[in-house]
Amino acid sequence: MKAVKAAAKAVKSPHAETVRKAVAAPMLEIPEPKLTWMNKSRQWGVRVKPGKKGLTLGSLNVGIYGEIPMDWPDQTRNPRGAIGRKGMPPVGYMLRSKSQVWADCAADLYEEAIQRRWAPATDVPWDTVKPLPDDLERAVCQVNTELSQYANVEIEVISAWQHQMVYGYHEVKQYLATAGFDAARHYEVFRKRALMNGGGLGLEGPGQVNRMILESRGGWTEAVVYLVLVRGLFAQTILRYLEHYASNEAESFIYRNVLQDKARLLTYGLDHLKFAIAHNEDQKQIIATLLAIGDGLFIRDFNDPVLREALAIVFGGSIEGARGAGMDVYHDMMRAYISTHLEYCQWLDVPRRIPEQLEQYAPQD
């Protein structure tokens, strides 16, 4: 103690007086530990063992910790399996039913997402981007401008609904956290491609489908119909074709890796819609009605020539090439989109009729 006091006297900092008073003060009494919390466990002795893929999120679902009820009345932030405290004020979550959010693949998608991260700043081989003809560069920049706008919508929609989900379905919340981060990365990388080769950002898209997704208020399932089955699938189809017609390795890398990320969101969305349909006899007709409503807004975006012309130039390599081969590839892309969209609707057993304006792209019997 004498040594401590001597050290305190030697201190010349502004806090020296505080230190001296603390040393001189009597020691605080340490209360006797009660340890009553140590006797509380819903299932003591449960051990989680790593598998071939390590200690994954899904491998934690053992014993009572793997019980995932169809309804989750707890509106606190209590983790699934923990013992809740009495008297905790409710948070007020909107989505408290498993059928409103669940997908069996969510835990696996989370693991894949965190293992396949990539960084636009350092992983994209930006040095392979060389000067392009002005018409082609402007077209590439326009396409990337609209793709960045798509990504921004994904960020907003996913984050807006994720915080409305109860903690009982944490696998979904955790996967959607990675999906939101994926969308942020896509927004970043598309902007970087538009800005790094002398072109810059182009025109804002018409945004009818954007508003349709952002203003969905019927529930997360409704938002998934528009976010995944309409916009997500459309963007994925564009990216597949862009990868094939990329002007350099950087663009090829971007489109390929964004496709990988979007494939996870598409997988989650389709799995969730299948689960929702299985637990709600009206859900198929609800989805069919939503798609019919969405057709009108999708067609408004489709009728705007900017994206169509920009894609045709990219596919054709120039304005001149867009007039023939480029536009032919664009029509082929639209046929691929409509065909895949109909296949997914058939898999979901959702009745679907393609509107007249898009019938030219529908598969012919």
Lay out the secondary structure.
Blueprint: H1 2-10, H2 16-24, H3 106-115, H4 120-123, H5 134-162, H6 170-195, H7 208-214, H8 220-244, H9 249-278, H10 283-303, H11 305-316, H12 319-348
Taking pLDDT < 50 over at least 5 consecutive residues as the criterion, the unreliable ranges are none
Strand count:
0
Structural class of the secondary elements?
A: mainly alpha
Distance between the termini: 94 Å
Major sheet size, sense and barrel closure: none
- The overall average pLDDT, rounded, is 91
Descriptors for this entry?
mainly alpha; Ribonucleotide Reductase, subunit A; globular
Walk me through the structure.
The protein has 365 residues and is mostly helical. It has a single domain, classed as Ribonucleotide Reductase, subunit A, CATH 1.10.620.20. It is 58% helix and 0% strand. It has helices at residues 2-10, 16-24, 106-115, 120-123, 134-162, 170-195, 208-214, 220-244, 249-278, 283-303, 305-316, 319-348.
